[in-house]
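Let's do one together. I've listed all components of the complex below, 238 residues spread over two lines.
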Amino acid sequence: QSVLTQPPSVSGAPGQKVSISCIGTSSSIGAGFDVHWYQQLPGTAPKLLIYANSRRPSGVPDRFSASNSGTSASLAITGLQAEDEAFYYCQSFDSPQSRWVFGGGTRLTVL
Amino acid sequence: QLQLQESGPGLVKPSETLSLTCTVSGGSMSSDDNYWGWIRQPPGKGLEWIGIISSSGRSYYNPSLRSRITISVDTSKNQFSLRETSVTAEDTAVYYCVRQDGLCRGVGCYSVWFDLWGQGTQVTVSS
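Okay, and this is what the predicted structure of the assembly comes out as:
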């Protein structure tokens, strides 16, 4: 069982809204450890998209937002654009193993 | 603007040692209180945190890799390095060097993220 579980894929048409879930455990997200999100465009390194649950780094459009609830987190993308097609990863901390962990990643396809 | 760049051999033989270096440019890595580290991504798979080190040399490693990993830092050269012993095909991956930032420091900190990434370097373990 992964510490952070994401759906393998999601899709949406341009202009629509999609959400990507990140299901954690009572020893990760549920224990109060913040969730961060990364976007990995094809052939590139991951880029920080959301940090500290819901904060956006400078330059990230406000079409990207995130929230937490209990042992899970969610990334929302509104006004979907073709350039949003990428892999998205959530990240938090696994306290029993004392390590930072990532979700398995979700591939976003813009139809 | 701070940038990170990985360097090292792209091919390593099984049972040998993988060595990578990350060079920090555009600023001094010892000018702030950040940690620096390594993350890898096997082909077609997700991200795995390897370990981190502070500019003062305090290090933390992924427990699953701890017995084979050493991360060191040389602030005079603005570099930090990864050494991974006894590699197997399972260590084949793109290796990224990263800067870690957060609302606190160290293992167990409730809010830590990776805000700067190198472009990544492909390492293949094969005879």
